[in-house]
Amino acid sequence: MAAALRGTLVTLVKGLGGARMHQLASRPLSVSASLCGQETPPPRADSTFKVTMVPGDGVGPELMTAVKDVFKAGDIPVEFEEFHLSEVQNMANEEKLEQVLTSMRNNRVAIKGKIHTPMEYKGELASYEMKLRRKLDLFANVVHVNSLQGYNTRHNNLDLVIIREQTEGEYSSLEHESTAGVIECMKIITREKSRRIAKFAFDYATKKGRNKVTAVHKANIMKLGDGLFLQSCAEVAELYPKIKYETIIIDNCCMQLVQNPYQFDVLVMPNLYGNIIDNLAAGLVRTRDLGGYCTTGDFVHAVVANLRHRPAQ
């Protein structure tokens, strides 16, 4: 499985003429990254970048082997600092987690496979995925949805960005059984983090030359929680008069993305909505089939889809 992926990617990298890291980063692929607001570190004196690698579970280890082969074939100056972290293979403890966190903080760039949550997990404690996000303050998940030239995608010339706040909301790991047969799951929305993700979205739009930011919400029902998110976005929008600002209810957003995705430019939203919308958007450009779509949780599944289903040419 990894061999097939390796062969495809090595061919791609060689076709780029031995491209360096900055050249690969500019390729029009549909990918996402989790950000904590820090700049990418400069290379070391020997012009080598140091990157933390966590293979994770499932096909993760095979995938990372392919990644290393691709970087080698492209003559990309990267040294991988590898850690094996897994909650389902008895390869995880707080000490090892701290080692991974220290490496990520030092290198400020990491590539990670899926770390599976154990089946017996009851939601009473944060998973290692959540711990990594929170301790590193990886608050912004950025998905660039971009039609890949040369492939028969469902929508051609599509170019939009989904920005998701991923440290609070419904995925706060705050749920419990208050009484027999009754589960309470808390959704946390704060002004501080809502304003921060809104500012990130508007800054992104400004730096990338984009014209519009759309806040996605459900404030018509969750008037306090999503109402606070929407109010925070509106306050930040006033600081960026050159960027058009709109709002849309999550229900309508899903329908509009299917009917006419070209109307959107940059979308910003709370955690759960972003998890749904970025998967929907991936289907618009078939990037899961191409293996080009990735989030912190779904990159492994994208690779599996790529290996099982060839895209229509």
Automatic annotation (TrEMBL):
InterPro entries: IsoPropMal-DH-like_dom. Signal peptide: none annotated. SUPFAM superfamilies: Isocitrate/Isopropylmalate dehydrogenase-like. Keywords: Tricarboxylic acid cycle. GO terms for biological process: isocitrate metabolic process; tricarboxylic acid cycle. The keyword Cell membrane does not apply. SMART domains: Iso_dh (SM01329). GO terms for cellular component: mitochondrion. Pfam families: Iso_dh. Residues 50-303 form the Isopropylmalate dehydrogenase-like domain. It comes from the Eukaryota. Belongs to the isocitrate and isopropylmalate dehydrogenases family. Heterooligomer of subunits alpha (IDH3A), beta (IDH3B), and gamma (IDH3G) in the apparent ratio of 2:1:1. The heterodimer containing one IDH3A and one IDH3B subunit and the heterodimer containing one IDH3A and one IDH3G subunit assemble into a heterotetramer (which contains two subunits of IDH3A, one of IDH3B and one of IDH3G) and further into the heterooctamer. This is Isocitrate dehydrogenase [NAD] subunit beta, mitochondrial. The gene is IDH3B.
